[in-house]
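Fold these two proteins, one after the other.
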Amino acid sequence: MTRSFARVAVPRPVEDMFHYRIPDHLLGRIAPGHIVTAPFGKGTINGVVMEVLEEVPLKVRSILSVSPVLPVEDKLLELTRWTASYYQSPLGLIVRMCVPPSVRSQSSKFRLTEKGRSALNEDTAGPFGDLLAALKRGARTAAHLEKKFSSDEFERCLGEGLIEVSDSSPSSPAAVEAGLKEPQYKKDEDTVHTLTLDQKRVLDSIEKSIDDGSFSVALLQGVTGSGKTEIYLRAAQKVLNMGQSVLLLVPEISLTPLLTFRMERIARDGVAVMHSALTAAQKRSSWEDVREGRARLVVGVRSGVFVPIPDLGLIIVDEEHDASFRQEETPSYHARDVAVKRGQIQGIPVILGSATPSMESYRNSEVGKYRRLELPKRVTPYPAPEIEIVNMADPEVARTENPFLSDRLMSVLKETVDDGSQAMLFLNRRGFSPFILCPDCNYTLPCPNCAVTLTYHRKRGMLCHYCGHLQPPPEACPNCQGIRISPVGTGTQRLESAIASALPEAVIERLDRDIIVKKGALQDIYTRMDRSEIQVLVGTQIIAKGHDFPNVTLVGILNAEQALDFPDFRSSERTYQLITQVSGRAGRGTKKGRAIVQSYFPGHYSVSLALDGDYRAFYEAEASIRSSLGYPPFGRMGRVIVEGAKEETVQKACVDIARRHSGTKGIRILGPSSAPLSRILNRHRWHLLLLASDHSTLSKALRSTREKSYRSVRVHVRVDPYHLM
């Protein structure tokens, strides 16, 4: 029997796939993985065929066209099915990431056939005359035509042979090349590095896995500056020499320039870069280079885990602990864990690298799921930097005229600059001040849309970092009309200003999300840091990861334990990781490094153990707490978020969900309660947590949550949530 129907996953936040008839002229040309254009509502949509069927028990509409783009391969379809099932995310939004960006929203073009042109000229087009006339001067996109004509008319005209799909002409090389390259980052460094004994031992183990040609996961735990990147390079080189491809995932766009530069050492065909900041032409070129085998080494951020890569032989996840790999918004998934699953499906080795492994990955290495490889020493002449604590909670601690800066940090900073070395100052808070305060009535300026205060930015005004609301700072207090309202607290802009005042001769720059949105800004700062043209770099967590500036000898960390203020069971882990990662930026060259940590809570174990550099002690302390509570990685966790315009309705729905699960075997409930961020974009938010000993029990409970709908609210479920705000 002819397989005349298809199940298509469309890029919409819906759970179901949609059935379509395969028209006669496309029979035999459509299989799972093909990208098709089909009617959807009153318009058309591009989707991916997941299955072809002999019959369906309902009347369905017809597929309009099939894209000439290569179909998504079977193993990648299997990965999307697993991801959608495990994380309970819409399949269509997951599989969409396997499709070239130029095709995701591209509308098919239609043109007249000879039969259609004859019908138009002979005035025998009947009810299709207007549609055929619209195509008289040439092909038009479906998006253009559906403003006047229905998809039913497209179907009938296609069925009558009056119109046909016009294959999109490929981009000309000149068009693709125009404006293609982003500003290039170049770094002066030796092209050949002699491996240490530890590096040789680790590389031998990884190369054996590559030679075996089967699935395995290696957790590469190396202190900052231990040469993990060189291991990545050597392993990737071996795979490329075997004629296969390599995927390297990084947590931040800011890490791609340096890693891309280093990877170009070994990739004669070039490196394909995949991230959202690229232009449309750059994205199209990267996808085409990978698809056609011109680039066999791919560097990408989170969504890069779904990129189709021919002959993939190795996956590397750098800074695997980083929370940026976890996408909380729909479609929800964790790129690190999806990368491991992709390695399993494709039967290839996976390397997870970090100086501060996630609790989940370290636990997997403890129970034998992953193989742990360690680099305990730096490759530089000096060991890890000495870390000095400044107890900011002590009223006797000397401060500068800016109370957020200790005399000790400022004194060492001046010495560093005078010595011709460089410094990095970390503060994980954008803007000038986190809020403005009226001392007369204690009023703070709230966001009108969200349950947060507005952040003061010197040049932009009062900004909400959640919804983007922007307004000028008030000249008087809106509550009591007092005139003493002023910025309170410190952000990176204020820190930059304070350092500039104290060191007027020094060149000071800032690196945060407000800066990197400017084209070329990131590469410019990196280049100038390499050349020691910048004496002090102030930044947020962007400067904490993977950067290697040999002349940086001082790192200052302000508000080191800021993450502990958040109601999240991972806050201690994040604090430990942050202090370790940021302090590790110092002393990576021929000079000794040091770090000064300003803390209001120096006695907390996440702070004190980070100062000692004792990851194992931290893991054991944290594991003791989490295992007693059944928290990940010693139990499974799911989160249910309910949001809506009316808080009473939201609360009732959340309470009802908790009630329905109260007697579920194997499920423990925390909540319900108002979410820490209780309102975003004028939508109130409540949540609850479900705890279980195994994934199957948790998954079943979360699926039952989604089966019941509630009026006027939206219910979201998150498997293995990383953010609880």
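Now the second one:
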Amino acid sequence: MRRPLLSCAVVCLVSVFCVLAPSNANNGKQSVTFTKDVAPILFKSCVGCHRADHTAPMSLLSYKDARPWARSIKEKVLTRAMPPWPADPHYGEFSNDTSLSQRDIDTIATWVDQGAKQGDPRDLPPAPQASDLWEISKPDLVLTMQEEWKGEATGPDENLEFIVPTGFTEDKWVQAIEFRPGNRRAIHHAVVLIQTPDMMRASQSSESAADDGSSIFRTQGTNRQVRDEVPVVDDGCAARREGGGNNARFALTVFAPGRNADVWPEGTAKLIAKGSKLIFQMHYSKATGKPERDRSSVALRFTRRPVEKMIVSLDIMNYYFRIPAGADNHEVTACSTFKKDVQIISFMPHMHVRGKDMRYEAIYTDGRRETLLNVPRYNFHWQILYKLKKPIAIPKGTRIAVTAHFDNSIRNKYNPDAGQAVRFGDSTTDEMLAGFVDYIVERPREEPAVARINPAIYDSYVGDYLVGSRTCSVVREGDKLLLIAPGWMKAEAFPESETRFFLRAMDARMTFQRNEKGEVSGFVFEMGNRTMQAKKVASGEPGQSRSGI
């Protein structure tokens, strides 16, 4: 079957007329026509977006549609501006490389030079139909937002969450995932998260938590933005605490313009636990200037074979940067260190309209540095999932460094305000640095057995702990030990031993530490690829509950 939405990563032009004079290079060449020679190229590489009611500004499904744009098509393919594939060819080989071959480029250029003739209509291949546009082939299940979003013509961006039940009565391993926007004109980007039953209970326990001012974010409408007074850390890789490295283990998929579907080999999959719900985190923009509606969907195809390997998503982020007003090449970094051997399979850079370029590097334990992906011409309006032809083996201890540059000057035509310093935020007018990475690990074995220990031991762990600038609490409730992070979670910690506990809700581990006096001094919290140190700052009364909220 044709790879239709892959063509959505290969738009062939933008809506700009560029008049080029025909050359004399067509002397003696065989006649090139739209129906016989050019239409097959456009149908393969362009019309996934260049069709009615899609992201591109015009359709290219017919000769009548394409002919007025012939000279612009030639100019864009000759300069390789379109189809968009901004990755540096010197680094990495990618299975979804959408660059046109030189032969295809020459065919289009010759067609234009010869007068952009239509040719015999009988030579025209069948036009791709919209019904063919599932990139993952026939899905096993399509889940759709139950509530329609209705947006006003003007106003700030909206960041909203829509909960979609799965109805799963057993664990499901998903081998292919495709997000289908209900309205591409209105969606800035979307993230689909998995909320397991344990996570639902944790979320419900912390929903009433008040903002105690310790958050680095302030909220404006439905958007988060880093507070002005938060310390600035542009070089996250040099910080004592890495500027990024959040484990997005429960992220099912991400959508942005230009990103195509997730399809993995049989036997490799993501897990959706029974009873889970999906959370559609939707970022809607008001770019069209008119009222818009949306009801988006996600399509799933389940694995047909026993699962041996699991896909994990990692977002390497820096929340603390600040881009000065007028800066035209401001550098920001973020890093994350792998705690186990993994195989990287894909990358997806994400910034907003001031984003200029992004580079991923592996820094090995012996000091070697290797560029894995370089995107020297980042385009916010066309964000690509770069799928490696072959997975990259990354040994334990390797650090992934993401380096980005931002243009906050008046020379950036997309810059909404060059006179303002910019920090991390959800809105398009704010900025982000997120280097998404998908990698493969062995399917985890069954969770550890719960050890039998005297609950009285829990009393020494009860108290408040400082993690960075935020406080969490360890609480004993009867024979249970709970970890409470205000506004985030309340989860039970199950003992593996007297000092090591695991959290089912977050697939995490915490290991308590004692000082030379034998007193509990803190704990190490491990979740996926991230390790955090918590320092004990206050103790509770033995046997008493502490709300931590």
